[in-house]
Predict the 3D structure of the following.
Amino acid sequence: MIDSQLIEALSTPEESQRRYAAEEISESGDPEAATLLVSQLHKEGSRAVKEAILRGLSRIWTSNPVDSIIELLKDHDPFVRAEAAGMLQRRAGDVIEGLNRLMRSDDKDLRKFSVDILREATIGAPDALYLAALKDEDINVVISAIENIGSRRRTGLAKPVLAMAMESSQPMAVCASLEALALIGTRQTLDALRAKYPNAAEVPGIYLQPFLKLLGHTAGPESIEEICRTIEQKGEFIYEVAIDALTNIALRHNVSQLNSWCEARLCGLLQPELDAGVRFHLIRLLGHFTGSTRVALVVLPYIHDPDRTLGLAAVESLANSSDPAVESALQSLLSTENDPEIKEELEELLRRRPRWNLPLSSSPN
């Protein structure tokens, strides 16, 4: 039984006494402690006391006070609502029934909270709850559901998300759907979307970046030229996402050659004025194609870049090249390089290419 003096202390004007009482009650082990603390939280004005109560609730929470914690989502204080959501997220798998009730609430904020909490449920989250959220009248609830479906890799829900991408009149819902489908979609998903987006270069601006991500995760090598032509037409604002998409396709399909037009376009993109981060990713992308002398010689100068992160990326990207000029430059760099990571990479690269170390008149045979 909770000491009556502690209960009385919750009503004292002195903040420190209320905080002490809250801490003691939370440690009492009494089954009524959670209900008492939640009741105090609704009327408590001190942030410090609220924090003490929430810490206590977090410690004593078992399956018993789940409904009490859910009730805190209705509190007028945003801090309390956020903390309650955090507690429920940590136990999301235990509160599915409560989340189902929240999804039937008239309060759109509570419905969104239920979807946000669901993100952390590793098991037990029913498709029905997601499907209800996708049909919600509030667009924020819908978008949260779409984002959760993607982040949780709920592949079984790809079809309703695809329908949203195809049919929704809400631009943000379409964008979220394309982002989610980039994570859970398949080649069949892309084929269906081609009825709406037959050519990436013609995709409306707000949808272009998520569509390029989708191409990167679901398209085949035949889309490489489509992406390169989109880069040419749309310019700098899509460089990063387009390069990432091309890299994903190259990795997924082990692509090592480009047609001459794509090769020229990507090589021409590698310029000193390009943003350093974009240059880094472009060099890594070109590394898939440095079996081509043209590509290798475009990457080669960057082994000397003052930004040694770029220098290392260039060295690693030349692993596929057997061009004599590349051999000579890497051997020369090895003798002068001070960066231990780059030096180690050079030694390993050259070790894997013993033919480079033979005299020019010698034959590996």
In short: The chain has 22 helices and no strands. The mean pLDDT is 87.
